[in-house]
Each structure stands twice: as C-alpha cells, then as structure tokens.
Design a protein that fits this description.
With 282 residues, the chain is an all-alpha fold. Helices cover 75% and strands 0% of the residues. The chain has a domain of 193 residues.
Length: 282
C-alpha cells in the first residue's frame, strides 16, 4: 500500500506539478543534512557480502509466482471464491511469508550468520530506528512531490488513474477485520517485503552494481512488482529511501519502520480524509 498517484483529491495541473517539483527539490536540498546526521547517529556503515547469487534470487521470484498460480488453481478446483473482503489480503500475506521462509532457508544454508545476515541483527537497532525515522521525515516531501508530478504526467499522457481495490477495502472493512487488515498492512507485509527486497535482493545487487546502482535497481524492481503504472514513481521514490536506510544501517528494523510509517500514513489519510474517501468510492 504505497503512496498512489490516485490519492490526489484535485485535478492534476501544471501548478500542482510545480508544487510537486518544489517538494522534490526541497528533499534533494535536505539530502546532505540527512546523510550527515545519519552518519553521526549510525557511524561506520557496514559493508555486507551476499553469499547467494542471482540463481537464488530468480528461484525465490519464481517460487512466489508459481505458488500464486498453484494457490489460484487449488482454490478454483475446490470451488472456493475469495471475492472481496479480507481473504485476498490474507492469501497475499501468506504467499509473502512462504517466500520469505524460502529466502531464510537460503540464508541459513549459505551464510555463517544465518538469518541475521538478512538484516535481523539485534545490536544497534535503536540508533538504526532513529536513522529510519529521520530519513522518512526528510524524504516525505519528495514522496509527496513525486506523487503530484506523477499525477500530472499521467494525466497529460491521457492515462486514467483508477483507485486500487485495496484502498476501498480500508473503508469497507469494519471492527476486527479492519484491525487485522491494518496489522497486515502496517506490520506483516512491510516486514516481508523488506526482508525480501532490502535484506535479500539489495545486497546481491549492490555488490554487483555498486551502492547507487544496487539501490536504484532494487527500487526499480520493488516499484515494478507492485503492478501499478500510475503509482510507479511515488513507489520508486519510497524504495530509494528504503534502500538508502538499509545501506547505511544493514538493519531490517530501520527499513521496516520507514515502510510501516508510510503505510500507516496512507491508511490514516484514507480513513480521515473526506477527499480520499470520495476517491476510494466510500
């Protein structure tokens, strides 16, 4: 549930794109400050060598999509219709958990540190969380700015931004089901995605493409698999922040905090904003 281009409660225009560009430039101007503060809070960036290869990365990706197809066929054969509600979200979370367990098995077998090499180290976690919170605060203008610029760009190209079904789901669910959904969207799913993308994929890409190339490639992959063309740029911007936080700290807790804060903010906007409710069809 990343920031979406469709979460714009006004008609995209050149003026809104200009505001977005200014927000982007503001975050760029704050970047040296953020980097300096991060280095002071979490000095001595740890260089991590991934002991797995592209075969393992490809196998994990294949496993996820194959498991998705198998689950779909199994449900169809059993005559089970997921329909709406919480069921598809639970299924998706289950598929992610299964893929992360496969990744964890690779880590346990190939690295002497076991699953800790995925960023699950316990030392210096508090300072890494401070770095994550700081990075998200300084990058939030860029994330919002990319949303505004993206909305204007796709509107200019004649591409209609349709609201995601998951955004409507936030409003449709009530009581315990809504609480479960929020827990999945803010805690479970971000943790699974960070373990896979920042804990598993990024180290491999960094050691083959360098720091910048690895973070950039991971961000491209992360934005692409979300399957929303209109929201690609905002998701990509968020992924760059997640990648830089992980690169500095090598602590999955820091990247997870950024991701969780962001998803929580999006859910809060949907539940508390009238224009977001109208846009989501509520």
């Amino acid at each position: 549930m990343e920031t979406q281009g469709e979460l714009v409660g006004f008609e995209p225009s050149a003026a809104s794109a200009t505001v977005g560009l200014l927000l982007l430039l503001a975050s760029v101007a704050l970047f040296p400050l953020g980097r300096a503060l991060s280095a002071r809070i979490f000095p001595g960036r740890q260089v991590f060598f991934a002991r797995w290869g592209f075969f393992h990365l490809g196998l994990a990706i294949f496993f996820y999509f194959a498991l998705t197809l198998v689950a779909g066929f199994a449900l169809q054969a059993a005559g089970v219709e997921l329909g709406g509600g919480l069921a598809p979200i639970l299924l998706g979370a289950g598929l992610q958990i299964a893929t992360v367990l496969l990744v964890a098995s690779f880590a346990r077998r190939l690295d002497p540190d076991g699953v800790a090499c995925l960023g699950l180290r316990t030392e210096r976690v508090p300072s890494s969380l401070v770095v994550g919170a700081l990075a998200y605060a300084l990058a939030l203008p860029a994330i919002m700015g990319s949303m505004l610029c993206s909305a204007w760009l796709w509107d200019a190209l004649g591409v209609e931004a349709k609201p995601q079904e998951v955004l409507k789901l936030v409003l449709e669910l009530q009581g315990a089901e809504r609480a479960v959904f929020v827990a999945l969207a803010v805690i479970v799913i971000p943790l699974c995605e960070e373990l896979f993308f920042r804990g598993f994929a990024q180290p491999l890409l960094v050691q083959n493409l360098g720091d910048r190339g690895g973070v950039f490639a991971t961000a491209i992959l992360f934005a692409a698999v979300h399957g929303n063309l209109v929201a690609f740029f905002p998701i990509f911007t968020l992924a760059l922040v997640l990648g830089m936080v992980m690169l500095r700290t090598q602590r999955i807790a820091a990247a997870w905090l950024v991701h969780a804060l962001h998803n929580g903010l999006v859910i809060g906007l949907i539940l508390g904003s009238e224009w977001a409710r109208r846009l989501a069809g509520g």
